[in-house]
Amino acid sequence: GAVVSQHPSRVICKSGTSVKIECRSLDFQATTMFWYRQFPKQSLMLMATSNEGSKATYEQGVEKDKFLINHASLTLSTLTVTSAHPEDSSFYICSAPQSGPGANVLTFGAGSRLTVL
Amino acid sequence: AQSVTQLDSHVSVSEGTPVLLRCNYSSSYSPSLFWYVQHPNKGLQLLLKYTSAATLVKGINGFEAEFKKSETSFHLTKPSAHMSDAAEYFCVVSEGYTGRRALTFGSGTRLQVQP
Lengths: 117, 115
Description:
Number of helices of chain B: 0
Oligomer: heterodimer
Shape of chain A: globular
Structural class of chain B: mainly beta
Radius of gyration of chain A: 14 Å
Number of helices of chain A: 0
Distance between the termini of chain A: 37 Å
Strand content of chain A: over 45%
């Protein structure tokens, strides 16, 4: 079945540095990918929609300059947390819709836990 | 507009007993409904989905859910809980195409399974 690979699974960085998280669809193409943020014991919050070949669409309240999204190819989207601060520490999850009959089903990556010291 | 309400934030059952996780939804259109499971520090795994076919949907790991339009419910059940079922469960509603605003997540239900 469809697989989405997310890397790294865990990252610890110092305040003020930037961190890049990659999301790859391994056996299917994804013109659209979604980035979510999840705080402890809470549900997923959609941050942005990554569009291959065009700018990402951000949800209200999400800082575009803080969370840079690049959809470089049909199988890769990256989220860069720029000038990270402790409040950016969170679990970030990407997802991509399957193609064909399963187009309304999202496949999720395993998530990336970011800890900013 | 669509919304989804998971009625219980925590459910605790004993191993071998039935599981019931409740979900109610609202939708302006014929929705698609999903249940996802998330184990600690992991991504989400699809358990089952309803997309206007049979109202009783069977998923993986012995879970099933019944779509009841009259009650706007999509409760998740399992006849006999296993220790490995302990996780967070999310009910999700989607109105048609999976566009950026088309998915709405419930707040989640944490299932605890006691030995």
